Task: inverse folding
């Protein structure tokens, strides 16, 4: 298969950066989806549903590969989404302080009538965070558009003590998983080229 067009159904700059990092030329077409969790929905099921819905938002054809992804942060069985404001970000960071939480990143791909998806989970441990540090971190603006109010690839790297799993999944797109899913819908990744 040659000439495949890749469409990323996400506005996330991190996902764009990661696709560029592995040499995948792509268009960005953010999906407008309802991101509310359904009653009783398990976190992994929720993330995968959103990723699949995003990938399905792109008009399907055999020459287009649509990629959808969603990342959520979960602690004590509670999903921490993007903070509403600085106070909400501070609340989330206090909950995560000195503890281990789980990041779920779901990836979905679609080409024509073929679709594949998977969920990667990663354990992330924060070092203890004093209120002054939380206030300073929020003042950078970085927490405001990120699930769980932090980004591991920026200033947030300094508040993470350990991760157990796929670093790129915590950033927002599990690259190894993505390549495997692409193969399942008939697109082979060859180090920057798609065939």
Result:
């Amino acid at each position: 298969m040659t000439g495949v067009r890749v469409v990323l159904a996400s506005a996330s700059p991190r996902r764009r950066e990661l696709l560029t990092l592995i040499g995948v030329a792509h268009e960005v077409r953010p999906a407008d989806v309802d991101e509310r969790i359904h009653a009783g929905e398990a976190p992994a099921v929720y993330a995968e549903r959103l990723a699949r819905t995003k990938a399905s938002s792109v008009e399907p054809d055999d020459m287009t590969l649509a990629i959808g992804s969603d990342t959520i942060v979960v602690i004590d069985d509670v999903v921490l989404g993007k903070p509403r404001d600085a106070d909400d970000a501070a609340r989330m960071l206090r909950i995560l302080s000195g503890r281990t939480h789980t990041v779920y990143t779901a990836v979905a791909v679609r080409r024509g009538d073929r679709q594949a998806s998977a969920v990667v989970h990663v354990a992330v441990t924060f070092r203890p965070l004093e209120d002054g540090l939380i206030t300073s971190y929020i003042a950078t603006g970085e927490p405001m558009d990120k699930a769980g109010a932090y980004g591991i690839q920026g200033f947030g790297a300094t508040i993470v003590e350990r991760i157990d799993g796929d670093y790129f999944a915590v950033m927002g797109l599990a690259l190894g998983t993505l390549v495997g899913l692409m193969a399942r819908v008939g697109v082979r990744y060859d180090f920057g080229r798609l065939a």
User: Anything to note?
Assistant: The chain has one domain: 5-194. The chain has six helices and nine strands. The chain has a mean pLDDT of 95.
